[in-house]
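Let's practice the habit of predicting before peeking. Look at the sequence and jot down your guess about where helices and strands might fall. Then scroll down.
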Amino acid sequence: MIDFNFDSNRPIYIQLIEQLELQIISGKIPPGERLPSVRDFALQAKVNPNTMQRALAELEELKLVYTERTNGKFVTQDTELLNQYRTHFATIKIKKFLDEMSELGIESKTIVKLLKTKGGNQ
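Done guessing? Here is the structure:
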């Protein structure tokens, strides 16, 4: 079961897409897994079924989800596509992190040193 969290300042369907994308590319919803029905998914997320349908339709356009006519919606089994999305998301997060470090005035050498010394101590 996914714990959906929404920010009231952004459209819900966009947040649904982002959260479901993350669940799919991280493997928390495994490749080939059957998704709940639109109604059940909407109840779980506490959103209107039309909103959930809109988000799932967008995920289908992104090829992360596909529909089998009588069996429902499933997560893609295309591991190459999932790896591409994972790399894309990682690149975005790394760029954001580096931009934030730059704003703090921290140089690349210091970032690398911090990652090596602190990265293993979570």
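How did you do? The mean pLDDT is 93.
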